[in-house]
Amino acid sequence: MSKDLVLVTGGSGLTGYACVAHALKSGYRVRTTVRRESAIKEIEGAPTSQEFAANLEVVLVPDMTKDDAFLQALQGVTYVLHVASPMANKTESLDEEHTIAPAVHGTTGILKSALKVPSIKRVVITSTVLVVLGSSDSEIYNETTIQPIPPGPFTAPGPAYFASKRLAYRATRDFIASNKPSYTVVNLMPTYIVGRWELASSPAVLTGGSNGIALSSVIGGSRPYPPPGISVHVTDVARAHVEAMTNEQIKTHEDFILNADGTEGVVWTDAIKIAEKHFPEAVAKGILPLGGTTKTARGKADGSKAEKVFGMKMIGFEEQIVSLVGQYVELTEKEQGQKA
Q1: For an engineered disulfide with 94, which of 55, 111, 131, 160 has Cβ 3.0 to 4.6 Å away?
Q2: What is the mean pLDDT of residues 79-99?
Q3: Is 293 within the bounds of a domain?
Q4: Which is it for strands 79-82 and 29-34: parallel, antiparallel or unpaired?
Q5: Is 246 part of any domain?
Q6: CA-based torsion, 163, 186, 72, 60: positive or negative
Q7: Long-range CB pairs of 268-272, under 8 A, 24+ apart, other chains included
């Protein structure tokens, strides 16, 4: 007999689909939302989706800024994993309409609609460590160090994304204070998320988002800005989301940083040594050209609260890279074989 029904928003993304897959494997029924009609087939065609097809439903919510955009999808739901949020990039506008509004109104909208669905017990929101991470080289940041909103207008993706997530977090806290919902709200604050993406169809797709940071040095690239050396495996992020739904230690609204490898962090170019160790044939074939120069900014985040409450030891950087690079090699060899 299936467990409760879980709504996962943004099910076609790296984190979203990992949450869908982990919830299904944990015995839950899952309804997930997507913004593109083409994403429905992408999700339904994935191996995990096909294995648990009887417990999976994919629905279209094209505009999450509309009032009650998620209300129909919330019917009958017990737990909500709100993962969906736009990633700013160089090819789309960085203004209020395209980046800020979907992040803020999507979050407050689902919280408002959840007030109308008495079956909902908890809403888990995918926030980001960037809400609490400051610029100090020495301070170890935790869940209490909330940072200010970067001022607009935005001319680069980074500040636009920071602003959208910090504004969404602030709006969530304001909503809780004003509405005192009967359900609890948990904000999960992952560091840079790394790992296999079951829906990735090509090497180019896999290199998007935070996976692109981890892969950059291995495929001979660099980044326009040095990201802090803090990361977490996507599998752990999904596990934390599902665990947060029912964890009995959480009695009220809580925030949790998700971070592996302790507070000292990692160096992104260490991925080169890991790739040489685990994938020597791919290096020899030139699939992994190495030689990238992605620099690592300082930044320390304390994820010990999450590990303690959720009872999990986060997967370390080496295994994160092996997981990701392994899939990159598989996809590249497949693509090369199709062109031959």
Answers
A1: 160
A2: 70
A3: no
A4: unpaired
A5: yes
A6: positive
A7: 268/213, 268/214, 268/216, 268/217, 268/227, 268/229, 268/294, 268/295, 268/296, 269/217, 269/293, 269/294, 269/295, 269/296, 270/317, 271/214, 271/215, 271/217, 271/218, 271/321, 271/325, 272/217, 272/218
Work out the average pLDDT over 231-255: 97
pLDDT, tens digit (0-9, with 9 covering 90-100), for 9-33: 999 999 999 999 999 999 999 999 9
Which residue in the block uniquely carries the two structure tokens 């169809």? Answer: 201
Query: Taking 70 as the threshold, does the pLDDT of residue 89 lie above it?
Result: no
User: Which stretches within the chain are classed as H helix?
Assistant: 14-25, 38-44, 47-51, 71-74, 101-114, 157-179, 203-206, 209-216, 234-246, 270-278, 280-285, 304-310, 317-339
Per the CB < 8 A criterion, the answer to whether 186 and 173 are in contact is: no
Question: For residue 204, what are the contacts with CB-CB under 8 A and spacing of at least 6?
Answer: none
Question: In one letter, which amino acid is 75?
Answer: Q
Which pTM does this prediction carry?
0.95
Domain encompassing residue 105:
5-195+232-263+299-317
Give the tens place of pLDDT for each residue, 290-311. 999 999 998 899 999 999 999 9
